[in-house]
Amino acid sequence: MKVAFPQAPEPSEDVAERGRLLFAGPVDFVKGVVSMDGLPAPDRPEVCFAGRSNVGKSSLINALTGRKGIARASNTPGRTQEVNFFALAGRGYLVDLPGYGFAQAPVAVVQKWQALLKRYLAGRPNLRRAFALIDARHGVKPVDHEIMALLDRSAVPFQVIVTKADKIGAGTLAQTLAQIEGELQRHPAAFPQLVVTSSEKGEGVATLRAIIEGLVDG
């Protein structure tokens, strides 16, 4: 049976306010992890962000937190080479994963951090949801299916966040969303709602904040 993947509805005022307050509170960098034994204790709920290199992951995290420099943004693919943990008001972790796919780094380095990414996704018991970021200009690529298949096998629910929606017109965006919906039919762990975002314009930020607040406190 085909599963529909509509856009997530905008939150009500009170729900949006709870999400705003979560990110308006302390958002502190905890540590960057390069091996599984360096992970913080799984003592609170966490969500993670995964995406191809240069998909706009750092920019989206900065937009969510309202802090321009908390996650380094760069035009150089593969800038994030660690699993970076941020504490959300002491209530949960937001986790920035290494970009996958093409990256301007030595092959051995790329292989090491992508192996860490896969081990993290497969073995983190307090992970409530993964957010898989897809560039609105490109849609789902084969390398995205590799990560989504890993999430399927690990029984980790994931939700697609469409980034850079302001970079294309409404008609092209509609085509991209249809392509994403079709591709997600292959993945049983996919959460049946999309969140369309623009870090520059702030589109979808309140919705995503509310979703994360619900996962942290749910």
UniProtKB/TrEMBL annotation:
This protein's record includes keyword GTP-binding: yes
Gene3D superfamilies: P-loop containing nucleotide triphosphate hydrolases (3.40.50.300)
GO biological process entries: division septum assembly
Cofactor(s) required for function per UniProt: Mg(2+)
GO cellular component: cytosol
UniProt keyword annotations, A-Z: Cell cycle, Cell division, GTP-binding, Magnesium, Metal-binding, Nucleotide-binding, Septation
Key word Protease present: no
GO molecular function, one term: metal ion binding
Domain EngB-type G span(s) in chain numbering: 43-218
Similarity annotation: Belongs to the TRAFAC class TrmE-Era-EngA-EngB-Septin-like GTPase superfamily. EngB GTPase family.
Function of the protein: Necessary for normal cell division and for the maintenance of normal septation.
Protein name: Probable GTP-binding protein EngB
Naturally occurring in which organism (per UniProt): Paracoccus contaminans
